[in-house]
Amino acid sequence: MSGSLNASLLIATIGAGLSCAFACGPLLTFFLGSWISVSDSDHRKGFLTVLQFLIGKSAVYMAAVAFSSIAGAEIQKKAMFLLGSKADIAFNIFLILLGGYFLFKVLHQKKCHTCKSSCGITDFNVTPLKVMLAGAAYALTPCYPMTVLMINAAMLPLTGALILGAAFSIASCINPLLFIGMFSGRMSQEMRKEISNAIQYFQIGLSGFFVALGSFGLSKVFGIL
Predict the structure, then answer these.
(1) Per residue in 151-190, is it b (16+ CB within 10 Å) or e — as a string?
(2) Residue 123 contacts residue 200 (beta carbons within 8 Å)
């Protein structure tokens, strides 16, 4: 923590944040896009949903730089070694819990003849808390840009590290997923208009897929597959 924040370190971290923004994989695109598509959303709510997800990620980034600055490089290395690849279990567990919750709610809605909501859409809705928790869980998945951020933060006092984390977070929010959220929100409107009777079946299938996806991810982490 003997270094100081300078322009080159800041630029390098912003570059890492931008690479994080454009490196979101197909899994994340599918997860957010499909979730928004079968919820009660429009293009504005879809945009805000992705933004809330990115805010959840950013909260973890800020906690990570604070830890790195306070703990220093050596303790950080030991912590990363102990966690290893198992740090990404959080997002897989979140997928299983979310998919299981939605599956239960939609199937219960399907059996309930006195429920006020139609087609189970309300039960599948995105909420700020759920989305930010998803973002936080996803941010725990190890990636190269986050590793760069933590290494850089370990060389700085706490104030400099937090500035670095804020710059990284803002850069990572310049994200193509924002447009995917808008498109998915628009798709949600069209689906409810054109195929409202089939939305419940999409939700059941998607819930099961989330559970399967999370289970597959956990199996890979623990070497079962």
Answers:
(1) bbbbbbeeebbbbbbbbbbebbbebebbebbbbbbbbbbe
(2) no
Tokens describing residue 205: 């299938």
Contacts 24+ apart (CB under 8 A), 129-132: 130/98, 131/49, 131/52, 131/53, 131/56, 132/52, 132/53, 132/55, 132/56, 132/59
Query: What is the rounded CA–CA span in Å between residue 31 and residue 95?
Result: 9
Contact at 8 Å (CB) between 138 and 59?
no
Taking the C-alpha atoms of residue 153 and residue 116, their distance in angstroms, rounded to an integer, is 51
The CA distances from residue 53 to 122, 127, 169, in Å, are 19, 10, 12
Give pLDDT tens digits for 63-73: 989 988 888 76
Residue 74's pLDDT is: 66
pTM recorded for the entire structure: 0.82
User: What is residue 49's predicted lDDT score, i.e. its pLDDT?
Assistant: 94
Instruction: Look at residues 105, 108, 97, 137 and name the one whose alpha carbon lies nearest to residue 124.
Output: 105
